[in-house]
Amino acid sequence: MWDKAEAALTDALNSTGRAWSLNEADGAFYGPKIDITVFDALKRRFQCATVQLDFQLPIRFGLQYMTEDPAVTERPVIVHRAILGSVERMFAILTEHYGGKWPLWLSPRQAAVVPISEASLPYAQEVRAALRARGLHCEVDGTSSKMQKKVRDAQLQQVNYILVVGEQERDARLVNVRTRDNVVHGMFALADVAGIMAEERDARALGSIFAEKAHLKVAGGGGDKAEKGKASSGGGAAAAAADGAAA
After folding, report:
1. Which of 4, 40, 61, 123 reaches 20 to 30 Å from 111, CA-CA?
2. Domain segments of the chain: what residues?
3. Is the domain 111-246 a CATH 2.60.120.200 member?
4. What is the pLDDT, as a whole number, of residue 238?
């Protein structure tokens, strides 16, 4: 039975198409197993996920199941399956690996809406509602701080997407999209923003996919004009964000 179990695990590993190695004499006393080893930010090895076959407990508990023939019973094999291993260890490794910059599908802060002024706050709340309706985590910075500080605060919090809205965006139902790394993707329709972010999350993408959706970008939106107006007065959001990034 042990040889049969090893053959089954070998077939399962080969079917993944990924490289693996055999660790002789490392199987548990109750059966062979598959261990998933990962590396942390310092290249240290940690065993996290594991799938183990257990022949002993079914015997000790006297477990049986009925086959297609009601007169014939068989003894099952218990599968011990731990996807994360230690949850705390896995989260520590992931936190170090991403340096706090979680991909969208893992991020606890997926989007922040930044209204340019108090008059833009109601529309910012509409944007938040639209994203939450798609199952995305989104907050509105409704503080009295200047737009540049709001953008900078969101960047420091490693929010994946910072969505700047003003009165002209409100009138056109647009959103000015930028990332925590100060990459400005420009103006997109609100419905497209919600759809793109949901697609990125569902695909479990490791990076932004807005660049791939440039064909949906709206040229000459109100936000572009607002950015230029701010920049000409010496207080542009792009300049402020760039200064913040340099700091």
Report:
1. 40
2. 2-98, 111-246
3. no
4. 37
